[in-house]
Amino acid sequence: MHFKFVHAADLHLDTPFRGVAAQGPLLGRFQESTFRALSRIVDLCLRERVAFLLLAGDLFEVKDRSVRARLALRRELGRLHDAGIESFIVHGNHDPLSGDTGTLGLPSSVKVFGPDWEEAEVRREGRRLCRVQGISYPDVEVRDDLSARFRRTGDGFSVGLLHANLGGAEGHANYAPCTPAGLGARGLDYWALGHVHTRSELTLPGGGMAVYPGNPQGRHALETGERGCVLVEVEDGGMRRRFVPVDTVRWHRLEVPLTGVATLDALLGTVGEGVDAACARELDGHAVRLVLTGRGPLHRELTRPGALAQLEEDLRARLARGHPPVLLESLRDGSRPELDWEALQTEGGFARTLLEEARLLEEDPVALARLWEQEALGSLGQRLKRLGVDVLEMPRTEWISRASLLGVEALHEEEEGA
């Protein structure tokens, strides 16, 4: 038996992209990006002639889904219906069943799972290709392990479609929490999961697979890199999986080293080269967070009042004029002053004394403990505890090293500014 299907999740249709500049071509491209990603998922289904599409929750950005988003979903699923391709949907915390007004129907080839566990069959020419099981969120918060309701009901390839937090993934609400052992015990071949926006897959006890395709369109600066869906090919009981990017606007975090960059012109050139290398031209647009790193002579220039904001304004205008246009999400300065460490060691003075004292504290845990027990630090620790701040019993040695470097840098900047 041979067939293909596509697994996608977390479409978040009609994400508003607040904070994106309202001028120029950028805002429109961002606002259309979630819809364009859905269209590209459907294009993939048609191109690969898949048997069905799985959508694992959070199809809409908000519970009260917009008319625009609902019409777009029906239009795209209608394209699959016309091609004889079925669709299976579960709803998650962003788009629970309680938010459906019932005023817009979907094609008959679309199966929307309800609040109770159900199983459907995919059949071709009278033969069963696959079993698909699913359950939707009745409302926003679901704290029960919904995976416990799933079970293998017979032979053949079986899929579990679920919006859930597997293994307590950080950064996501712990809705429908489940474990690898729990999923493995259900005996299904493929768990099509949604909720976690980072792409991942896990081999389960017993041999099944749990897969998060990630969201098909990045929505903010923490959702960087390619975003898409998973194409699964099943043949003779085995399966192959291929990630397929479908995003049209891509987010990036780019580090720009200042080491060896002596002028603003050189910095602008370095930024331009980095952006050109990272931002694929075939996409509709990009958004970047630029972080200046390393030590260089420009650090002092950038610490002048207003300098970083002025540079950011200039870069934002330059990048927005590119093809495709690039949104500068923010410019952040993580650079440090340029220091000649060998000279500091040989010249002596307070800077050298500070570095030597820090080295001795790092090498002598007893001396470090005595420092930590001094009255001033002890009373500070007590005040922090009363405020509910966790205080370590002993400082970490790397803190000593970092504090000494910051002290030397502060001395250097004071001398430079004198």
Automatic annotation (TrEMBL):
Residues 3-198 form the Calcineurin-like phosphoesterase domain. One of its GO terms (molecular function) is exonuclease activity. This is DNA repair exonuclease. The lineage of its organism: Bacteria, Pseudomonadati, Myxococcota, Myxococcia, Myxococcales. The keyword Ribosomal protein does not apply. Keywords: Exonuclease, Hydrolase, Nuclease. Coiled coil: none annotated. Signal peptide: none annotated. It comes from the Bacteria.
